[in-house]
Amino acid sequence: MSDADTARRKEARKFASGRNWDSWPQYQAAAGGLQNYWYPVAWSDRLGRKPLAVQVCGLNIVLMRSRAGKPHALQDRCPHRGVRLSQGSQQFPDTLSCPYHGWTYRLSDGEMVAAITDGPDSRMCGAVAVRTYPAEDRLGLVWIFVGDRPPHPLDDQLPEELVAPPPFAVGGRIEEREGNWRLYAENGFDEGHAKYLHRTALWRIFKVMPTWNKIHIERDGRWLYRVEDERHWEADFPGLGRWTNMRWWKLKPRQMEGRMLGNTGGSAHNDPYIASLPLKGFASLSLPGVLRIAYPQFIHYEFYVPVDENRTRYVGLMVQFKRGLARLGFYLHYLTVIRWLFHGQFSGQDHWMVAETDAPPERLYRPDVSVIEWRRLFSEVDPGCGKASAQPANPTVSDRGEA
Amino acid sequence: MSDADTARRKEARKFASGRNWDSWPQYQAAAGGLQNYWYPVAWSDRLGRKPLAVQVCGLNIVLMRSRAGKPHALQDRCPHRGVRLSQGSQQFPDTLSCPYHGWTYRLSDGEMVAAITDGPDSRMCGAVAVRTYPAEDRLGLVWIFVGDRPPHPLDDQLPEELVAPPPFAVGGRIEEREGNWRLYAENGFDEGHAKYLHRTALWRIFKVMPTWNKIHIERDGRWLYRVEDERHWEADFPGLGRWTNMRWWKLKPRQMEGRMLGNTGGSAHNDPYIASLPLKGFASLSLPGVLRIAYPQFIHYEFYVPVDENRTRYVGLMVQFKRGLARLGFYLHYLTVIRWLFHGQFSGQDHWMVAETDAPPERLYRPDVSVIEWRRLFSEVDPGCGKASAQPANPTVSDRGEA
Amino acid sequence: MSDADTARRKEARKFASGRNWDSWPQYQAAAGGLQNYWYPVAWSDRLGRKPLAVQVCGLNIVLMRSRAGKPHALQDRCPHRGVRLSQGSQQFPDTLSCPYHGWTYRLSDGEMVAAITDGPDSRMCGAVAVRTYPAEDRLGLVWIFVGDRPPHPLDDQLPEELVAPPPFAVGGRIEEREGNWRLYAENGFDEGHAKYLHRTALWRIFKVMPTWNKIHIERDGRWLYRVEDERHWEADFPGLGRWTNMRWWKLKPRQMEGRMLGNTGGSAHNDPYIASLPLKGFASLSLPGVLRIAYPQFIHYEFYVPVDENRTRYVGLMVQFKRGLARLGFYLHYLTVIRWLFHGQFSGQDHWMVAETDAPPERLYRPDVSVIEWRRLFSEVDPGCGKASAQPANPTVSDRGEA
């Protein structure tokens, strides 16, 4: 190929609109969510005898709590005429009745146990049921299992340090946001954006972030870790000038002893439990969209729960392993600062960018190794739950009901 | 088939999503409305020389009243550039002019009689016309005939007792609501829902409704009647408990003498005209979506007029056969109570459920015999008016106009 | 053909819904705009170092001004992840940086000159670029050239009298409006509607307009002129009555000496520059959607800039060739009267009708010769820019970026 040809090709590539996602077919197929996972969907203390509607992986689900205090999850559609059961109410203990004609379903197995307006001898009882989903309370959240297999224990999926943790306090936000859940996960784990996008976040007002760095990704079990190799506080761009995040009032984080946890600020008082964890880096990510950011004194988690292909339920948790009075201090800190600056404005910048993201096509660059490794994880799991496959395979029965 | 097989099949049917409407093809085809019927579309006293836009069976129609007081209905689209004539105004008596260029149509036959901006010698006059629809005033309403045949007399279609009634008073509401007109009709005539859905309606605050009953449907002429065979004020559901609508402050309706008109409250003072009518039951339904509920002292009518496939014009009328001072009393009763409790909150519950209904698929039960008989009526009439067939069959003429 | 047949055919044509646009294929293909033209998109004094997003011919474009004061126009999409560059900011002189990861583009040629979060040695620099569009300031407006050829001089496209005009003053409005740009152009040049639609405009409160007239269209260079042949102040419509715009308080415009400029009011003090122009009529129209209305003392221009197929950027300019104090008087007149009555209410009536227009199908009449001649112009120019063809023909390159 002549030099002129090479130059021409190089020139053409400059304007190339980028590549698509064909090389990650499992990733592409998971737009609507991944099957056979537990998802946190609501605060436990918001769930009682009043039905609560949620949407996960494109499925409409109604939650309700039994007398024994157990959460239950049922398909949110009465088979009679398609009315949402979440519009109904409890007429008998541990059941939920459709508001239209009083078709009444048992919470535990979804079976219709009474059609109130058809009397006790109704022939529909035992002949109609709605699907149920496994549900559990954990960490102050209600979790439901969406899949076509028997559920694995929720413990197998929780961040390991939360399975049997010391006493801890939790503050958090649950919000439904526009944008696909995978883009939220990529944004959360993305090495490049924090240093630039979030430079204006109040959360960072007293802390310098590097201008750029070099990283690699390490895998440990189901977790991917970003590990920093080089850090540059400022940079001179030829022909343009110097760029830096440093300001006279900002602190540079100290290197953490032994290992570098990334671009966070340091702290004089590391939490001993966090310090004892075998974390390979500041930020880690696992399927089905769980981000963990280990600060010296608390850990921040983000669960990106697929609502449908275009919406994501953001579940942000800040966990501190404190007891007694210290716990009270955390709640005070959370409610006065963290909730507004971190779970509010900082996280709002991510929301803004995910809503802006219009990929594919895309052109990836060096820091996107974090994104690429994340996409590779999808080849190891069950295919995503398109709405069709996740719904129970109920053939339409052409009986004429009982009428 | 082995017992195990039978059990498995039975189990599978429980979760079956239900059946579709393939067995009622005429009903399915009538989503956009039925042809060759009169439809009430507006209060007569709201129609004058100002054009009024309505949509019926997917057709855009403009109403206007002539000097002689007659209502007229024209296609609401100027053939010139597609502007709605209802945006225009009267420039000459008994005509309507398009707001854009003054193309002027005669109310009586839709013929363009002047193109104001083209002068008296315009060659378009007599060469362009818009379709007209038969229109009449009756019962305080403007009715228009939508169809492809000459209209039958409106009298043939009115509830018989309203063709030559004694003096009467009317109160009512006209509202455009979301949801298909057939679902409104089914909801109105549906035996099952009233006793459960409406148990919380203020309209029912002093009257018990049964918990369940058994009915059959009787046909008389064009009307279907719900006839009650058994009535149960309360019921014990095995393993669940007792359910009842009875409260200490509520009255049980007395059986009406001679025949049972259904789940309404009784009255010491039956209206003699209503008592004289050969009604076979409390609730009756006829095509094209007319519900009649005969109370001892007044009759309530609901006309479910198709706007398009997704919206319905609800025309609710309460008619009392009174004259003089009693009539005044009715209006007072209507405006202070009926309008808010019955045509408002009670009817709003129906609106809520129709908007919620997501059928097919569906699973019908014993009380839905009312729904099934209604759907059978559709096999006796002209096919529904899809937008395509109801519009005049005007081939596109490839002349170049007059320019 | 028998008389009966003729009558039947004539009757059928009356109701014919009209003809489509098949006979003007180039016009039909130009729904999204015309290529290889300059378009005014914003006021020059609104553009500085803050990026400004505009949409033209379906293209998303970001505008920014360099230190030297030159306007620049770039494709408004970062190739990295598809974020709009208009959401970003200037980090280095004469560049624009994406808000997400700091990818930084040179305004002059769109080349990416820095990926801030990837350091000075980023391999993406020089390998990625966004498309740029020629941009210029003229007449107080920023103009951009959309096309696939090198741009012709903007002078070749400006109304001739504005290329080297005497001192002048400009008042104007820029508004995005719903409706296709071609319908705005047709409405602006349409002979028929002004006399009828605008009869209620306050702008016309003291001036009579004719009831109807006869016109022909003359072509001069790229301009079409409406030339009036007959004018009728009032008309008697047989069987209907007399129709006129005349009122006792309204003035009839005097005929302008030598030639008739159409349905405008006359003026005792014609502007000498306007009087010297070789205009063949009051209203003239040229591609790509420029209307010129020559009043005795000022000229009004409307540029109908395609945003996309359904929206139009209306750029209305009122130009008076005055200097010194007279110029001040014009601005006073513009801000107190013209802006509200002409660019506001009068032009709002046009907006209303374009939004109402639902063509094709359509039936054209004698005054629509203006519309027909306009559509014929499209056969002389490059095909319209469908979104597909106007975007740079960038094949998706299946490299894996730099990661």
TrEMBL record, chains A, B, C:
Organism: Sphingobium terrigena
UniProt xrefs under Gene3D superfamilies: 2.20.25.10, 2.20.25.680, Naphthalene 1,2-dioxygenase Alpha Subunit, Chain A, domain 1
SUPFAM superfamilies xref list: Bet v1-like, ISP domain
Protein name stated in the entry: Aromatic ring-hydroxylating dioxygenase subunit alpha
GO molecular function, one term: metal ion binding
Keyword Metal-binding recorded: yes
Residues in Rieske domain copies: 38-144
Region (Disordered) location: 383-403
Family annotation (Pfam families): Aromatic_hydrox, Rieske
Keyword terms: 2Fe-2S, Dioxygenase, Iron, Iron-sulfur, Metal-binding, Oxidoreductase
